Task: inverse folding
């Protein structure tokens, strides 16, 4: 996203500002509207409209110089990467580990803990400690799997900070005229 914003400097001012405004709107929508929906485990769709508007702004550029043609090509390349990143983010909200895998993990955990009882120990306390350590290790792995299966929920979740920091970095650019028509910068989303 940041490179789209920066690359518009090489376009005519009104064209570049239009693209920057559309990009600002997309980022604001993702942070302020979509992120809270993702945290609930639902797939958001509010960002599609501003992304399509951004796409339209880029594909309708009518380059008048060779450098503008190169910039448009680069903008299209990065826009396609943005579409791909969005698809991955939305897929992470939807895609979860199937129930059969959870059954296999549970069954494998019971087998592993049960296997510890096949070892011969002379001290029963040592045997209990070893079994507890194996069970705790397996429990930690399951907790990690759950955290990774729901990447936008809980304390160890993905935050929109990268979007917010990127958007704030745009204010330092020499051609920036504020936030344009899109309004205020996004606010951080909290649980």
Result:
């Amino acid at each position: 996203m940041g490179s789209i914003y920066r690359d518009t400097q090489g376009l005519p001012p009104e064209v570049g500002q239009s693209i920057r405004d559309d990009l600002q709107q997309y980022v604001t929508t993702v942070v302020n509207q979509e992120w809270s929906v993702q945290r609930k485990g639902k797939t958001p769709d509010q960002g599609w409209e501003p992304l399509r508007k951004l796409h339209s702004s880029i594909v309708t550029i009518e380059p008048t110089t060779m450098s503008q043609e190169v910039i448009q090509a680069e903008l299209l390349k990065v826009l396609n990467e943005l579409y791909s990143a969005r698809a991955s983010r939305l897929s992470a909200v939807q895609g979860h580990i199937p129930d059969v895998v959870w059954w296999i993990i549970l069954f494998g955990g019971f087998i592993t803990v049960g296997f510890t009882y096949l070892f011969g120990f002379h001290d029963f306390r040592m045997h209990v400690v070893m079994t507890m350590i194996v069970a705790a290790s397996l429990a930690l792995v399951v907790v990690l799997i759950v955290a990774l299966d729901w990447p936008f929920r809980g304390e160890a979740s993905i935050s929109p900070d990268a979007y917010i920091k990127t958007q704030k970095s745009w204010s330092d650019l020499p051609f920036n005229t504020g936030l344009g028509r899109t309004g205020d910068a996004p606010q951080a989303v909290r649980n």
Observations:
- Residues 99-149 form one domain.
